[in-house]
Write a structure and sequence with these properties.
Blueprint lengths: L2 E6 L2 H15 L5 E5 L12 H11 L5 E5 L2 H8 L1
Helix pairs in contact: 2-3
Length: 79
């Protein structure tokens, strides 16, 4: 089964979308999030290292689908 990674500038948005996706897809869906930044006081943004770790956790033989919220999230996922 293809893994799924949700990338968002907002951790809350990524986690909320993941909650809905898990409810729809069931327990077998391999789903990870990479939302927001870990910088205190600056929670909004994307971090290529967080995206990479999420892709590694969601990886399967069938691949990983990465869904992003805004253009710069694409840049983080491409790195």
């Amino acid at each position: 089964m293809v893994g799924l990674v949700l990338v968002s500038h907002s951790r809350k948005l990524a986690e909320g979308a993941a909650e809905l996706a898990r409810e729809m897809g069931g327990p077998d869906v391999k789903l990870e999030t990479a939302g927001g930044l870990e910088a205190p006081g600056h929670p909004v943004g994307t971090d290529a290292a967080l995206v990479l770790r999420a892709i590694e956790r969601a990886w399967s033989e069938d691949g990983v689908l990465v869904l992003m919220d805004l253009g710069s999230a694409v840049l983080s996922a491409e790195m």
